[in-house]
């Protein structure tokens, strides 16, 4: 079994914001695999299905970003999974728009959602996929991540979500190390242009 969690904020006003790119990626996976996030509980929107030979749980936290630890701990306990079968997807300002980084663990890198997860699980060994949303040359960090993507950024966001979905498929098939080896490279020009 694999559990994939997309981080974000629950209110509608945050739907197209940089901070919700993880939740957007899980929404794409939901469509791809036909796994509806229909089960609601106080912690998360959850769906379960079978992808190939693997049972997959998709989830989106129902708490605000800085309280992500509770929902993730609930999912780990509910499905009794080892942490290597968990993947957290979230935004990263330190990566340019369009870049992905997958790691089996490490520090929170200043991300409040991941900080909460590490604090609650009491370990840094939390597999994660960081999706680059870039930094703003003018806006402060909070305004930037809570801001919506611009029209000019839309093609880059679409390519990023496509790449995140491909990487998540690879995670299900090959685990975090397989996904890391294939998707931590810089996208080529042909990938960037959609060719």
Q: Kindly state the mean pLDDT as a whole number?
A: 91
Count of helical regions: 6
Computed Rg: 15 Å
CATH class membership: Alpha Beta
Helix content: 25-40%
The total of beta strands comes to 7
Report on the biggest sheet.
Answer: 7 strands, mixed
Q: Give the class from helix and strand content and strand pairing.
A: alpha/beta
CATH topology: Rossmann fold
- From the N-terminal CA to the C-terminal CA, the straight-line distance is 33 Å
The number of domains is 1
CATH superfamily: Peptidyl-tRNA hydrolase
Shape: globular
The unreliable regions are: 190-195
Order of helices and strands: EHEEEHEEHEHHH
Which strand order does the major sheet show? 2-3-4-1-5-7-6
The second-level CATH architecture is 3-Layer(aba) Sandwich
Strand content: 15-25%
């Amino acid at each position: 079994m694999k559990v994939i969690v997309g981080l974000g904020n629950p209110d509608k006003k945050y739907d197209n914001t940089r901070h919700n790119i993880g939740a957007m990626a899980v929404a794409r996976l939901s469509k791809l695999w036909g796994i509806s996030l229909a089960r609601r509980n106080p912690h998360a929107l959850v769906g379960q299905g079978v992808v190939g030979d693997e049972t997959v749980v998709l989830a989106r936290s129902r708490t605000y970003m800085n309280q992500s630890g509770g929902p993730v701990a609930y999912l780990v306990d509910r499905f009794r999974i080892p942490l290597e079968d968990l993947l957290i997807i979230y935004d990263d300002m330190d990566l340019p728009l369009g870049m992905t980084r997958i790691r089996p663990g490490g520090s929170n890198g200043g991300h409040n959602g991941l900080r909460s997860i590490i604090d609650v699980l009491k370990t840094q060994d939390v597999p994660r996929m960081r999706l680059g949303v870039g930094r703003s040359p003018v806006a402060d960090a909070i305004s930037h991540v809570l801001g919506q993507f611009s029209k000019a950024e839309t093609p880059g966001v679409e390519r990023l979500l496509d790449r995140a979905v491909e990487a998540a498929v690879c995670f299900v098939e090959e685990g975090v190390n397989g996904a890391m080896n294939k998707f931590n490279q810089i996208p080529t020009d042909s990938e960037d242009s959609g060719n």
